[in-house]
């Protein structure tokens, strides 16, 4: 789905009673607010509407409030959808630390074949607040519910989703949400596990610095390793800094970064070759 072909509605209200009334969307996992983590995976949305109290965010959004405040997820969803115009609406809760852009793309693709697509968790349970819905049937069912019940306040989401034809997208962790302090602790520990910690750190640094750039982490680490082993250990951070600076001087972007890394890697290889015997390094 092309950028801008969908709008995003993020539900960031709720009393967070099991968190002692803490501002849950503002709680940090990996140095980033939960809401900002969700905003990062739907940055290609044409319009992003956050339903809940206004708060600082990493990128601009539109704000909405359900009527009455605290009226529940269907009322909140209605308030958000009213400010969207795209044919597909991505609906997310604001406390999903492990949601990825790949999962979002899978949901959007699934919505092309039905009224929408909803994520299922490790137990096969549907998660209607991690879903993509076609706007027309979604609006229709919301209007019917309002007419049948005299309003939307307090209505459960299953009354809405049960009337829609929904595809299923399975992912064991993407729907993990943070309802308790134990969940927050689990999320903070999980992002530090081997195999994910580096990607999490790079994503956090890019968000903090406002860098929207795909980084070939493997190539960059290989360059740092070669500089450390072939020259001297302090050469690794200095080399990677200079590579980034050179890429910025050439206008930035993934191509400029890749070119700078190639040149620095070739230099590191030539430097390492010279550490051998004269015969070995003659070329």
Sheet with the most strands: spatial strand order:
5-4-1-6-8-7-9
| Main sheet makeup | 7 strands, mixed
Order of helices and strands: EEEHEEHEHEEHHEHHHHH
Low-confidence stretches: 277-283
Gyration radius (Cα, Å) is 23 Å
What structural class is derived from the secondary structure elements?
Answer: alpha/beta
Q: What's the helix count?
A: 10
**Which outline best applies?**
elongated
Mean pLDDT: 89
How many distinct beta strands? 9
Query: What is the end-to-end distance?
Result: 50 Å
The percentage of residues in β strands lies in 5-15%
Helical content, roughly?
A: 40-55%
List keywords for this structure.
alpha/beta, disordered C terminus, 41% helix, 283 residues
């Amino acid at each position: 789905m092309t950028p801008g072909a969908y709008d995003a509605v993020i539900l960031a209200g709720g009393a967070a009673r099991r968190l002692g009334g803490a501002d849950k969307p503002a709680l940090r996992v990996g140095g980033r607010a939960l809401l900002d983590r969700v905003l990062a995976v739907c940055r290609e949305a044409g319009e992003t509407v956050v339903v809940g109290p206004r708060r600082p965010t990493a990128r601009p959004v539109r704000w909405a409030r359900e009527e009455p405040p605290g009226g529940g997820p269907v009322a909140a969803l209605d308030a958000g959808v009213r400010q969207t115009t795209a044919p597909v609406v991505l609906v997310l809760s604001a406390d999903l630390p492990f949601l990825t852009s790949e999962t979002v793309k899978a949901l959007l693709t699934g919505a092309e074949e039905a009224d929408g697509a909803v994520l299922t968790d490790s137990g096969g349970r549907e998660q209607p607040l991690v879903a993509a819905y076609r706007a027309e049937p979604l609006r229709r069912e919301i209007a019917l519910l309002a007419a049948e019940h005299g309003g939307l306040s307090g209505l459960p989401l299953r009354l809405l989703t049960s009337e829609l034809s929904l595809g299923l997208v399975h992912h064991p962790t993407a729907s993990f949400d943070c309802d308790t302090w134990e969940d927050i602790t689990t999320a903070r520990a999980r992002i530090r596990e081997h195999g994910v910690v580096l990607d999490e750190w790079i994503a956090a640094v890019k968000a903090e610095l406002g860098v929207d750039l795909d980084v070939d982490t493997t190539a960059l680490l290989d360059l740092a390793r070669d500089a450390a082993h072939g020259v001297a250990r302090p050469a690794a951070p200095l080399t990677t800094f200079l590579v980034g600076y050179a890429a910025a001087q050439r206008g930035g972007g993934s191509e400029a970064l890749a070119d700078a890394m190639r040149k620095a890697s070739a230099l590191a290889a030539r430097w390492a070759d010279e550490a051998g015997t004269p015969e070995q390094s003659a070329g």
